[in-house]
């Protein structure tokens, strides 16, 4: 007999951790640190401290390298826009930090930490 409540998922796996978190915390969100942040330890530590200060928990993080095909698929909605090629090339130029964040209103909290998508419109401090 299994000693865990989720059948088909091995104890100690990331998936089981996420399932247990989902049972106790309202939201999960994905945070991706682009190569210009991921390659510098001090930048990563700063972002992680901001995440913790915002009452979010880092459930999982890992470093990945994105392929061109995956980057193009990820940003498919922007295909044809003037910044598309620059964005894809930036995402494949080095390692990415991928984080699963958990907390109450995690999505809106993370978005508020990022600030506006139009950086030139943003006057306050944010993670961009």
Automatic annotation (TrEMBL):
SMART domains given in the database record? NDK (SM00562)
Q: Per the database record, which ranges form the Nucleoside diphosphate kinase-like domain?
A: 26-125
What keywords are assigned to this protein? ATP-binding, Kinase, Nucleotide-binding, Transferase
Organism's domain of life?
A: Eukaryota
Q: Which PROSITE patterns match?
A: NDPK_LIKE
Q: Which Gene3D superfamilies match?
A: Nucleoside diphosphate kinase-like domain
Q: Which GO terms describe its molecular function?
A: ATP binding; kinase activity
Q: Tell me its family.
A: Belongs to the NDK family.
UniProt protein name: Nucleoside diphosphate kinase-like domain-containing protein
**What species does this protein belong to?**
Schistosoma mekongi
